[in-house]
Amino acid sequence: MNKLLLYILIFFISANANASFILLPMDETTQQNHLKAYGITYWCLSKDYKASWLLNYRGGSFLLPDVEEIRKECQIRGVSFEILSDNEEASILDEISSPSQNMESVVLEKAPKIAVYTPKGKQPWDDAVTLVLTYAEIPFTPIYDEEVLSDQLLLYDWLHLHHEDFTGQYGKFFAAYKNTPWYIDQKRDSEALATKLGYPKVSQEKGAVAKKIRDFVIGGGFMFAMCSATDSFDIALSADGVDICEAMFDGDASEPNYQSKLNFGNSFAFKNFTLERRPEQYEFSDIDMTTKRRVPPDKDYFSLMEFSAKWDPIPSMLCQNHTQLVKGFMGQTTSFDSALIKSNVLVMGTCELNGEARYIHGEKGKGMFTFFGGHDPEDFQHQVGDPPTVLDLHPNSPGYRLILNNVLFPAARKKKLKT
After folding, report:
1. Tell me, what's the pLDDT at 49?
2. Which positions make up the signal peptide (predicted)?
3. pTM of the model
4. Which domains does the chain have, with CATH numbers?
5. Cα gap 356→347, rounded to integer Å
6. Cβ-count burial of 309 within 10 angstroms (0-12 exposed, 13-18 middle, 19+ buried)?
């Protein structure tokens, strides 16, 4: 009888000591591949495993069930993980739940369906989001104007826009690249697509696309934009029905006094901006700070804001990182003039040297949007035609982590934003 009790006691002690959870630590010193850790978490959600995002705990770690295939997947992808017992997991959650700790555990419910807005043809630049999604092994579907205008956005939860010109001015590349084959091909292909879709001008077709994307967000979708897709999107919405393009872009002159006809009530994030009239100028408006900033490259950093994880989980999720100071990087649209940002838009990252906003977030209808200035977080001044960044050299990139925060946060169980 005593032997039986001893065996039972040993069994329960052993069972309690068995691992029940996997922790993907996201602090600076422990995780060898931050970017692929997001891919592991997405992969678990796609296989209906439970997952939690531990906001502000060791850099925003992920808690997963201890399953053999998850361990193997971590090992294959080179993601650091720790095995936790039930008691260890309970202790961590108890620490996180303490009112004195700016931490929160957020349940991730399902893998969001991801669309990336990208043209069919090869472009002379690369897309940071496509790069990092591919590197993290997070699946996505490329879509473009035909899919957007035929309401296929309804199939997706999350949409990314990168280095796109929604104004119909072909990226304002006219002065430098008007005689290059890729520019000539891009203009010809864009005009042919607009005609095919029933629009007399590319600017009108792109404006229609912008409005479809607007409706996607208002209906509850999540939109993330980088570089020139941020300001050109808002400009296109504000200039709805107004011809702001010069003859080299659409064959006729722009409307007289078009600046005064802009409707800032239509835009998502920006207000009271002034458009750049000169077609040879590589700039859309004064929203962008690229030509106005005086920040030496060695001092070009931006700071992430700190939010209450318990009360404001959404901006907290979007700012999860292993550092609050992120190296700056340039783009056609590098950053945003803070004076031109609407008051209901949340600024999540700023460069203190000149007060510019780098990373902003807002709500529109039932959906949300995030704008991130710059082109490539690991290439300070990416030029047209430069080779794409090799992310194997930057597996712990703080800038790329911000992109992946946006990819994953639509998976979270919804809580009302209180900021």
Report:
1. 96
2. 1-19
3. 0.92
4. 2-108 (3.30.70.790), 114-411 (3.40.50.880)
5. 10
6. buried
Distances (CA, A) of 328 to 283, 346, 356: 19, 19, 11
Cα–chain-centroid distance for residue 301? 18
Residue 276 CA to residue 175 CA, distance in Å, equals 14
Return the closest-CA partner of residue 236 out of 252, 258, 221, 217: 258
* Residue 247 in this model has a pLDDT that exceeds 90: no
Distance CA 260, CA 255 (A): 11
HSE-CB at 368 with a 13 A cutoff on CA atoms is: 17
Q: What is the pLDDT of residues 158-202, one digit of tens each?
A: 999 977 899 989 888 888 788 898 888 889 999 999 999 999 999
Q: HSE-up of 419 (CA within 13 Å, CB side)?
A: 20
Separation CA 371–CA 358 (nearest Å): 8
pLDDT at 9: 44
Q: Are 163 and 223 in contact (CB under 8 A)?
A: no
270 burial via Cβ count (<10 Å: 0-12, 13-18, 19+) = buried
Distance CA 97, CA 310 (A): 9
Residue reference for tokens 């399902």: 110
Q: How far is CA 225 from CA 102, 164, 409, in A?
A: 28, 9, 15
The residue count of the chain comes to: 419
